[in-house]
Design a protein that fits this description.
Blueprint lengths: L21 E4 L2 E5 L12 E6 L2 E5 L6 H11 L3 E6 L5 H4 L2 H8 L2 E4 L29 E2 L5 E4 L2 E7 L8 E5 L4 E5 L17 H12 L5 E4 L8 H24 L5 H8 L5 H20 L4 E5 L2 E5 L1
């Protein structure tokens, strides 16, 4: 297992073979959706679990080409259940349509909800990316084990990226479907109040302490040394906390000033994500007692 000081190395060497059924592990295959972008990498991986009967994990965007690819991959087999790692629309938008078409149950960690109450006049930057109205047939809880597609599966609650995020372990194998909690191509976006950095750190530890060692994320390829990579992710985030504190000590007092100090020269699209990440870290640092955040009508002021 990696030590907390291990350097983080992202891996963008991944051929999605978009629209094609690709074997990932015994009784596990994926079909990658054609929704590549700066936040989705090569597209969302929808997973099929089982052989003669199936479970479908993260059916992805409501895209006709992707739905046709899933139908070809299913090839007339019975889909017993549709599982969601979480309810961001790049994972869940096709779920309601497929639930009706396939006659399958829809199970996930409860309706989309914020990680903390929204403050007065606060805007959720990713509100439109969330599937607020989707209701599960069964709410899954941490520690449950159930059968899906003839495969026993463990539920590991992994809030952080969002409040209802789950990971699914294929019991008896090393494989854990990590959704957006842990991805090999990049660290996950955490945008408050939708997500929580405090929860994210706790979920990293929970996954590392599980029996599962090979991670299959919803964007990108397999992570062979999952616990080692999770340790490196945690160290990376802790280093970001230190960089933010250094910026504040050096005189940066706003989210924009801290972002400009830590992420100089990034594109506009990435700058928006960087601002969200900095704010999530600041709320974590406030919870740890390292900074004070004064919210004023003209913006947030950071103090030591």
């Amino acid at each position: 297992m990696a030590t907390p000081s291990q350097a983080l190395s992202f891996n963008s060497d991944f051929n999605p073979q978009t629209g094609t059924l690709v074997a990932v592990a015994p009784r596990l295959a994926r079909v990658t959706a054609p929704n590549a972008g700066p936040y989705t990498f090569t597209g969302t991986n929808s997973f099929l679990i089982g052989t003669d009967r199936l479970a479908l994990v993260d059916p992805g965007p409501d895209d006709d080409d992707h739905l046709d690819a899933l139908r070809r991959a299913i090839n007339g087999r019975r889909v017993e259940v549709i599982l969601l790692t979480h309810t961001h629309r790049d994972h869940s938008a096709a779920a309601a349509r497929l639930r009706t078409e396939l006659g399958a149950q829809l199970w996930f960690g409860g309706q989309h909800r914020l990680s903390r109450p929204r403050r007065r006049l606060e805007i959720n930057p990713i509100h439109t990316a969330c599937d607020w109205d989707l209701v599960p047939d069964r709410v899954l809880k941490h520690g449950e084990r159930f059968d899906a597609g003839g495969v026993a599966m463990d539920v590991i609650a992994t809030p952080g990226h969002c409040a209802n995020h789950l990971a699914f372990g294929l019991f008896g194998t090393p494989v854990l479907l990590t959704g957006d909690h842990i991805m090999g191509w990049n660290s996950t976006l955490i945008s408050v109040p939708d997500g929580s950095m405090v929860d994210y750190f706790a979920s990293l530890d929970r996954v590392r302490d599980s029996a599962y060692t090979v991670y299959a994320p919803a964007h990108g390829g397999l992570i062979a040394d999952g616990p080692g990579y999770a340790a490196a992710l945690k160290a990376h985030r802790q280093q970001r906390n230190s960089q933010i504190l250094e910026a504040v000590v050096g005189g940066a007092r706003s989210v924009n000033a801290i972002t400009a100090h830590i992420y100089p020269g990034v594109s506009l699209a990435i700058r928006a994500a960087a601002r969200m990440t900095v704010l999530a870290h600041l709320e974590y640092l406030q919870a740890m007692g390292a900074v004070r955040l004064n919210r004023r009508p003209w913006g947030l002021r950071v103090q030591i």
